[in-house]
Every structure is written in structure tokens, then in C-alpha cells.
Amino acid sequence: MPAISRDEVAHLAGLARIEMSPDELDRMAGQLDVILGAVAQVREVAGDDVPATSHPMPLVNVTRPDVPRPGLSAEQALAGAPAQQEQRFRVPRILEED
Amino acid sequence: MTSLSQFAEVLDYDEALAKFDPVLGLEVHVELNTNTKMFCGCPTEFGAEPNTQVCPVCLGLPGALPVLNQIGLESAIRIGLALNCSIAQWCRFARKNYFYPDMPKNFQTSQYDEPIAFEGYLDVELEDGETFRVQIERAHMEEDTGKSLHIGGATGRIQGAEYSLVDYNRAGIPLIEIVTKPITGAGERAPEVAKAYVSALRELLRALGVSDVKMEQGSMRCDVNASLRPRAEDQDSVPLGTRTETKNVNSLRSVERAVKYEISRHAAVLTGGGKILQETRHWHEDTGITTSGREKSDAEDYRYFPEPDLVPIAPDAAWVEELRGTLPEPPARRRRRLQGEWNFSDKEMRDLYNSGAVELVEATVAAGASPLAARKWWTGELSRLANLEEKQLSEMPVTPAQIAQLQALVESGKLTDTLARQALEGVLAGEGDPEQVVEKRGLVLVSDDGALGEAVDRAIAANPGVADKIRAGKVQAAGALIGSVMKEMRGKADAARVRELVLERLPVDAPDA
User: Fold this and answer.
1) Share of chain A above pLDDT 70, in %
2) May I ask the CATH architecture of the domain B449-505?
3) What's this model's pTM, rounded to 2 decimal places?
């Protein structure tokens, strides 16, 4: 059984707002399956004595003081925006969600 | 609009409650009042020019690395402790993935299955003084989103908009989300319990000093989950019905109304043989109804995973205890203490609490007014004016210090109650402190007996018939003369003194033998 089905890829594409043709879905499902298969090998290597981790460094409680620091100017912030208006990022019409 | 009428059908509330048992769940988002954002050093001031409080971290630019705000963490733990929660010994942040331009990273940094605080409760006081315990599921840390302006179509609405303009100043502002367990057993008082819970939570957060908790400005926002299940002898054994989530119910009054509306609407659907869809609903403040948003299916698929850019949090137990030591006196206990100090009855204190005036009265007393006078102003004239303007008392543009000053003017005899109300009107109109308003408007009481006496003489001369009646013993007729003098003085006289002057001048003739 593949690690990821074509339907699951289609579902993910929908969540990511990426339009994919049937051909693309077939190809992507095959490629992702190979990638997930490779990752699954890592899981086999790790025994029960190796806890799952989300961070490579054994650090906890890294915080910063609540002191403002200079950020970007509006011009700098908007410099990479494909479109802007009234000092705001202009984005395409948003489908109603929240 | 057909989509509105379709959902406008509701069952009478009492009838709904006779058939069904309501179950609620409340999710409250609170913006913390930290100086900087949750994961970067950008300032958090409200109302700044668009996109001037942003940096690579909150804009989600490649390579930027978030670091947790120490005060944000402290506030989260203090909130958890104040809600009688356990504090996690170890927990992480998680990415909540979704594609929407209000978060430029395409995910919101939140907490998922490892909240910083969990399993607590909040005792809330209902209007009749009864206490209801609301169980808290969790309180977790996350960040606020940017603000979108929708252009084209109906003003400000997403529907029909051509494009949107986004300001990321708010993106990354620290949020604490506080989630209740299903609230059962409230029965017909469910709407009141919901309102009382949000009110008690707001009071607690204010006392903690962690947020300015302004619902009208969005620093405290409430989502209301509601479901119905059939009434039964053994109510707890009946499984919960399908719930709806009404988003952004942003005033205490609306929380109560939205719960009541959803109960009535669910009941109508269920008694009509229909099914409740698990969906998000929009609250309409103006019409007091909810309308269908989106169905919660795909959109719930947020693909949470642990945030790899932030390290886990493992608060030291001693530090947590230290923070526990910084908790304020619980608001309910504080109210009982103040009630004793002020010598108010249970009902007086409850009215004060229900009108949101406890802090205002406290501050007015601190500024020198007597508790009795302070209560009279806030629950009397100011409540009346606030109701007329459909505002909260705390939104009225007058400070406790100004009320104390106004009261001092009354007590020193410089203003009558009538003049004091006029002075208050001036203060509310932005004309300055009461003393300034008195001067500008010339609201000084005419206490000069000479001037008053002349006005009384003129009134008697102009109303010989009335004068005769008073002389004949009909003392109550004096009202007409007093009214005439007060009118001439434009209210700037002490009516009691005028009455004395009238009666001095018109002694009752000895009745004919």
C-alpha cells in the first residue's frame, strides 16, 4: 500500500489552494510516496528508546525581554509586495472563510 | 435575502427550553498588553499607521527566527493560575496551517495538544447572586492575525469584494485563548451564565493587569459554541448534540443574545425534523441573528505540527509558585471586602457589579467622594445616559476623579443636583473638568438672598391669585411661585431656599373665627 494516496494528495492540494491536473496528481502522488518511503526508513532505525523530537537542540525556555526593537519601515515592509495600496498589502479577493 | 429568511425561523425560547437541554462552550481570545509582539520585538501600540509595526519575523520573511516574549509567557501562566489551572511542566508551540492572507507565514503559531495551562475552573456570579462553576479546558498561547480591509462590494464585507488590503501591525500580537469545557446544567439560564462567565473573566483579566480587555476594540473576543440535546430524567447520560460556533460575539450583551438566539434556532430546526449542521456562524449585532458561515470539514484540517523554530517551554516549579504569589485578590472576594467597607446591601453591590461600575465607584471613592455619592452618580445619572447612548459605563467620557470633583461641588453647596447634572453634561461634551464647566457655563448657584428675594417679590406680584391661596393656607400652591423663580434664575437657585423666602413673605392669615 502506498504511503500516500492520490486522493490524499488531491485533498492537500485543495487545502494549499494549489490547482493540480489529474496528470500532476498522479505524478505527485508517486513522488511523494517515494519521499515518504525514504522518511519511513528513518523511523525503522530509531528504536523505542529514542523519543520523538521537534527540535535538534536540547534547549528549553529561550525567551527575550519584552523590549521593543526597531523593525522595518512601511516602505521596506512593502518593498517585496506584488501589489500595494494605501500602505497596505493588496491581495486578490479572498474566499469567504473566517 | 433568501439566505437570511431561511434561518430566521426560531422557536419560542421557553418552548425550546421545555424540550431541550442547552450545552455551551465558550472560547475567549484575549490580546495581552505586552510592549512587544509574542515572537518578535515589534511594538504593539493600537492605532499606528498601517505596516509600521512589522519586521521579518511577523511578516514571515525567509530566515527570520521567532523568540518567545518572556512577559507573554508570564502572563499566560498567571492567567492559567488565576483560572485554577494546572501549568504544563513541559509544552511546545505548534503550527496551525491555513492559507489566508491575514497570516503572511501561512500558519499561525499556536499551541495544540500541549497547552501551557489546563484543567481549571472559574466561579461566576449570576445576577441573583448565585454562583455557577464553569470548568476550564485549557488556556494556550498564540498570536493574533493581521487586519484586512475588503474593497469593492458591500462596505467592509468579504462578500463581493474585489480585493483586500492587509495591515500586519496586529499580526503577532500575543493572544491567550481560553476554552471552557462543555457547560452543562445551566438550563434556561444558559444565556445568563455565558454572559456572567465572560464578564467574570474580563474582571479577572483586568485585575491581573495582563490585558486592557476592551471588547469594543477587539482586545477581548468571544466565540460561542452551542448545542441542544433532548431533555431527560438522567440528563448527563444524554449525548451532546451537534454544535455550531458563532464567531466574534464582541459585547457582553451580544454573548447573551447570541446564545439565546442559537438555542431558539436549533430548537426550531430540531423540532421541525431537521439536522443541525456543524458549522461556523456569523453574528449580526444589528439584527440580533446568526447566519451560516462555512461548514467545518476541510477547513478544520489545520495539519498541526510542533513548531521547529521555537524551543519547548518547561517552567520551573519554583518560578510558577513565585508567579502564583503575584496573583491579585480574587475579584469576587475583593467585591465582598469592598461591600463591607462601603456598607452596601447585597442588592446594591450586585446592581453595581451587573452595571460594571465596581471599579468606577472604587476609583471615585479613592478620589474623595463618599461611597454612597459615588454609587448614586454611576448607577443613577451616568447609567441612564450610558443606556441612552447604548454604551458601557466604562466608555463614558468622564473620569472617576471628575465625578468626585462634581460631588464636592454639590456638597460644598456650590451646585444643586440640577446644576450638577448640567455640569456633568458639559464634562461629557468634552468641555473640561466640572469646575471648568461651571465657570464656562456660569452654573454658579445664586445664593445671594437679596437677588433671590427680589425674584420672589416679582413672582408674587405677577401671581396675586397664587399669593392669596398661600395666605389662605394652601401652602402647596407655593410650587407655582418657586417654579417661576427657578425659571427666572435658570435653575441656578436652591429650590428649598426659594421656598423659605416665599413662605416668609406670605404668612398664612389666621383663619377667620
Assistant:
1) 94
2) Orthogonal Bundle (1.10)
3) 0.80
